[in-house]
Structures are given as C-alpha cells and as structure tokens.
Amino acid sequence: MDIHDFNAGLLKFIAASPTPFHAVLSLGGRLQAAGFEKLDEMQSWQLEPGRRYYVTRNGSSLIAFTLPNQAPAKNNPLAVRLVGAHTDSPCLRVKPLPDLRKNNYVQLGVEVYGGVLLNPWFDRDLSLAGRVDYLCEDQSLKSCLIDLRRPVAIIPSLAIHLDREANQSKSINAQKDLPPVLSIAGVRDGSFDDLLLTHLQEHAGAADAVRVLSHELSFYDTQLPAIIGLHGEFIASARLDNLLSCHVGLEALLQATGDTCNMLICSDHEEVGSTSSSGAQGPFLRSVLERIIASGAETSHSRAEDLERVIRSSILLSIDNAHGVHPNFMEKHDGNHGPLLNQGPVIKINANQRYASNSRSIAYFKSLCLQADVPVQSFVVRSDMACGSTIGPITAAGIGIETVDVGVPTFAMHSIRELAGSEDAFNLCKAVRVFFNAAPVRV
User: Fold this and answer.
1) What ranges do the domains of the chain cover?
2) Inter-residue contact 356 to 381 (CB < 8 Å)
3) 146, 160, 334, 391: most buried, per Cβ within 10 A?
4) CA distance 53 to 278
C-alpha cells in the first residue's frame, strides 16, 4: 500500500465513523473481510493456532488479535505485541430529555463530552449519529445505529454588533450557549423521541419499533475530511484524535506477515478518563488475555502466573496524537521538544508518568523506526505547563505491561476540525508494521 491509498483509506474511515459505535462497526467490517472471526464474550471460545479473531464490547470498543501457528512451549511464555488507541473524540452529546422551545425555535440540550475546544463548534453544519435503544411491537428490546448524515442543526454565533468584545475575550457557558437550533416551532411539532422513532421506522430498518427508550447520540460536523495545503501537505478532519491511530493500528495489523501474536485494542471513553467496562481502565483487555492463555497448551503454572509471564514478555505501543508546534504559538512548547508536522512519529515522555514511556521502551520504539527508515521525534511538555495523558499509563498501571506512548503531531487537538501532516500517519504505520513482524525482543 502506498501513501495515497493509505490516506484515502484514513479519510474514508473517519467519514464513516462519526461516533465510537460507527468506528467499531467500520473496524469490524474490515477485519471480517480480511478473515478475522468475530467472537462473542458470552460464549465459550475455542481458539486455534494460526487463526485471527476479534471481539467487541458495548459496540464501542474492539480488540483484534492473531495467534501464532504453534502454541508456545511450556517454558516459553507467549509474547504479545499490542497496539492501543481509542475510538472516542470530544463532542456534544444529546441529553436524555433534550427538547427545548425558546422564542419559537426548536433546540436540543447537549452535554459536553470530554475536553472540547468549544469555539470552533459555532456556525458549523451539524448532523446527528449514535445508538438508539427501542421497544418493539412484541415487547422485545433492540438497538441500532443511526446517522442522519445531512446537516440538521447549527449553533449560531452572536453577531459582533451585539457582543463588541467577542474578539478580545469570549467565554462560553455550556448550558446556555451551546444548544443547537434545529427548526422553527410549529413546522412539524413533535418531541425529539417522536422524530427518532420516525427515523427508525422509515430509514433505519426498524419498522417494528414502537417506542424510543434511550439513546447515545452526538452532534458532528458534516464537512468531510480532506487533504489540503498547496502541495497536499496536511490532513484536515474531525476526530483525527484518535481515529487516525485506530486506522494506523488496523492497517499495520492487516499487513502483518510474521508468525506472531499481535493485538489491536481500540477503547472507548479515553476522553473522559477510561473508567468504564469498555474503557482502558476496565477489565476488557485483561479478560481477553486470560481467555487467550486459557485456550493454550496446559502448563505446570497457575493461571495467574501464566498471565504474569505473558505480560512480562509483551510490550504495548500506546498510540495517540501529540501536540505539534503551532507557528503562531511557538512559546507554548519546550524549545528542544517541539514536534513538527511531516517530520515523523513522536515519542511522548513525561517524568511524572502522564505518559508511560521509559528509557527501555523509548529505545525499543526508536529501533523500530530505524528498521522502518522513518524519522522520529520527541515531545516533552513545558515544565511550567500541565501535561495531558493517554491510555498508556492506565494500561501500564492496570496490567503491568511495558509501554511506550507515541503518536503523530497535530494542530487544534480537540477542535471540531483538527490538522495533521499527510505523511506522518503513513510513516507511523510503517514502524508499527515492523513492530508486528519483529522477532520477540525483551526490553
């Protein structure tokens, strides 16, 4: 695959994935087309050497893995190469009882999900997507994904004539200022649940739906991802953080040719702390590892010891976007650790363990980049600024696995439209492909 095909696939994936549910659906479709078998957590697993599998949880998190052709010997623990990313992005989530009528306008109440950069959400063409749970005619419960696709809402800015200080200082009240405008009252009166029910019956293949019971719906920008710049230097899109990394991990996994145990973890809820049954702080990864071990050859050790030996023999690449040096705000970076777009993947380092990289895992990732012939950069936040975090420290602390935090440099992280270099994701994928095909290395 060349860089043009890779980037075309990335843009297609992001456009098809306005929510974590849609992202997992897209990932699962690609995996099944490549011969991965879908597993059910409620069923017994009969895993076979040399086969490829994936499993989802909550419809918003996914773990895919390949097994080597032969189970490891009793005294040779399985070495797993793991790549972790997350499926969620900051957004505006529709409240459970969202209906608002103000001054003859139909609006929806929204809740801020994650650390949203709010200003760019104004004056954008917004649509709705997510999961709806409903009651059927036979009193059974079902759920389905919806994506309205077309623009249905907008958050209009207040005119400069009515807010003369808007360009000097603009504060946003999330409760008051963010409810999007959908319609004018009286045009087609009805509750939001009524509108959802009609959409389910007429457009989502749920003709038997009789009542909407619950939903997890998010607004998103309908502007499509694009390659931009005078010479196509950039990728502009919503949800680059962190669907870009999910795409990198998937493509590397599908291109892996070695006889190894490789794993891709795409977790939900990273933007709100990862504390959920399907988040990185939950039991999903540990559960899958335990079931893989249980399917292997019998050993003379306890199951807990088998798991610990596998963890100590494995390594995780936690992939999440890094802050590139903005040319208008260069002072926001440490002078020696400012990543540039299209200058290669970034290793993220923090002495206070906001990132899980250590000297050994850093050296290992640099060796992968050398083998892949791609440049590599380092990011350390300014000593007088707070540092973000990723699933890396959460996973490392939760199961004890050696971890390195890496990613591609981006601008406008957590905006409704972010910017990355058009070469960086492809170069990172090359390094991850080496990682998946490499011989076991104890770091």
Assistant:
1) 3-89+238-437, 91-221
2) no
3) 391
4) 18
103 φψ region: left (φ > 0), alpha (ψ -120 to 50), beta (else): left
Structure tokens at 10: 């990335």
Alpha carbons 281 and 390: distance in angstroms, whole number: 11
| Residue 83: burial class (beta carbons within 10 Å; 0-12, 13-18, 19+) | buried
Predicted TM-score (pTM) above 0.85: yes
How far is Cα 41 from Cα 290, in angstroms, rounded to an integer? 12
Q: What is the pLDDT of residues 63-93, one digit of tens each?
A: 999 999 887 666 678 899 999 999 999 999 9
Mean pLDDT of 191-218: 94
User: Among candidates 344, 321, 322, 318, which has minimal Cα distance to 263?
Assistant: 318
Looking at domain 91-221, its CATH superfamily turns out to be Aminopeptidase i, Domain 2 (2.30.250.10)
Q: What is the 3-state secondary structure (H, E, C) of 132-188?
A: EEEEECCCCEEEEEEECCCCCEECCCCCHHHCCCCCCCCCCCHHHHCCCEEEECCCC
Helix (H, G, I), strand (E, B) or coil at 389: coil
Task: Give the pLDDT of residue 69.
Answer: 87
Helices (H), 265-320: 284-294, 303-312
Sign of CA dihedral 371, 347, 415, 397: positive
Q: Any idea what DSSP says for residue 407?
A: E
Say how far apart CA 178 and CA 119 lie, in whole Å.
Answer: 10
Within 10 Å of residue 442's Cβ, how many Cβ atoms? Answer: 10
Contact 288, 55 (CB under 8 A): yes
Tokens at 115, concatenated: 């650390």
Contact, 285 vs 307, CB < 8 A? Answer: no
Q: What does the alpha-carbon distance between residue 345 and residue 356 come to, in Å, rounded to a whole number?
A: 16
DSSP characters over 7-55? HHHHHHHHHT-SSHHHHHHHHHHHHHHTTPEEP-TTS-----TT-EEEE
Residue 438, token pair as written in the block: 């490499």
Question: Rounded distance, CA 316 to CA 118, Å?
Answer: 33
Q: Report d(CA 141, CA 212) in Å as an integer.
A: 10
Q: What is the mean pLDDT of the chain?
A: 94
Q: What is the pLDDT of residue 349?
A: 97
Pick the CATH number of 3-89+238-437 from 3.40.50.300, 3.40.630.10, 1.10.860.10, 3.10.180.10: 3.40.630.10
